[in-house]
Design a protein that fits this description.
59% of the residues lie in helices and 8% in strands. The protein is of the alpha/beta class. Helix 7 (157-164) packs across helix 8 (168-176).
């Protein structure tokens, strides 16, 4: 079969290639991932040399694939990778480790679900598969969420949450982990600190967060114990503020930046929800094109405000390091 771009692929027929394993056909039709994501496309046998890795890497460490290679040799490839047509070939959307393993095994062809996807759709499919397979650590997940909302501007937290089947609070809290010091993030990535516990550390300044993270690891503190310690510390800080004594100006600056960032995140999430709702309203007014156009104009305006708030949030965070005095403008 020849695609519009001139790419030649071979459609898989009823005869299953021996190297794919006996469970291959059943998996193609019953895969939980495919059921949850009914993608338009077709199943093809694609030459490995025509496939390139994804440009949207979600995992910083894909881990050793030797075990996966042994499994594929023993049982075959039980689920095809997902690819999309790209320049002079195909790009992996989901299944990078399977692709790498089969490539190292010397496979010349791979069963692939070929789907036409734009960058946003490809990112969503890749993210959803990794979430369902639980292959991302909390920080990798947080970075992917932030990229979706801020870097790529695909939509707000509410829209992302709806697309991946999570709550808006879940998405917001994950992104909040990225405000923690890198040393604390590293401990979260190594699973030494649970994300629910780490979330409490976002209320502290960097030095306090690192100190508390060390205590959590050394003393195996529970979420309840961490909350109790933080409440006690915040109560002490509040008493010092009431008495007019502040032990460290930097602490005050850190708290201000965190407070502003949290409020801006809430504002962005709220506007994102409005964008989604306006889209739903427009869909129900297919015959009222004038009203629909007005709704789309409003939606685009809100998206611009989301972009402005996102830029403001980044500006505030940068000002903390480059010019703390500028924070007086938003105090």
């Amino acid at each position: 079969m020849v695609l519009g771009s001139g790419l030649r692929v071979h459609r898989l027929n009823a005869a299953v290639p021996k190297q794919l394993g006996t469970g291959y056909k059943a998996t193609v039709t019953s895969s939980a991932f495919m059921k949850a994501n009914p993608l338009a496309g077709f199943l093809e046998s694609v030459e490995v040399r025509m496939i390139r890795p994804s440009r949207m890497v979600l995992r910083t460490d894909s881990g050793a694939i030797s075990g996966l290679m042994v499994s594929i040799q023993d049982k075959g490839l039980l689920e095809p990778i997902i690819v999309r047509p790209a320049d002079d070939g195909f790009e992996v959307v989901a299944g990078m480790r399977r692709y790498e393993a089969c490539k190292k095994l010397g496979w010349r062809r791979l069963p692939a679900h070929v789907v036409e996807l734009d960058d946003r759709e490809a990112f969503e499919v890749s993210l959803l598969e990794n979430i369902q397979r639980e292959t991302l650590n909390p920080i990798e997940e947080a970075r992917a969420f932030r990229n979706y909302v801020e870097e790529f501007g695909y939509g707000g937290e509410t829209e992302l949450a709806r697309r991946i089947g999570k709550s808006q609070e879940y998405v917001s809290k994950r992104i909040g982990l990225l405000s923690l010091p890198q040393r604390v993030q590293d401990q979260i990535m190594r699973r030494r600190i649970a994300p629910s516990v780490a979330q409490e550390l976002t209320l502290l300044n960097d030095d306090e967060a690192e100190d508390m993270a060390d205590k959590i690891g050394a003393q195996d503190l529970s979420l309840r114990e961490v909350r109790r310690i933080i409440r006690r510390r915040q109560s002490k800080d509040a008493q010092e503020l009431e008495s007019g004594f502040l032990p460290n100006d930097t602490e005050s600056l850190d708290r201000r930046v965190r407070r502003v960032s949290r409020e801006l995140n809430i504002a962005v999430a709220s506007l994102g929800g409005a964008v989604v709702r306006l889209g739903e309203v427009a869909e129900g007014l297919e015959d009222e094109w004038l009203v629909r156009e007005s709704i789309f104009v409003c939606r685009d305006s809100i998206r611009e405000q989301i972009d402005n708030l996102t830029r403001l949030k980044r500006k505030v965070e940068r000002a903390q390091d480059t010019n703390p005095g500028r924070l007086a403008l938003i105090g």
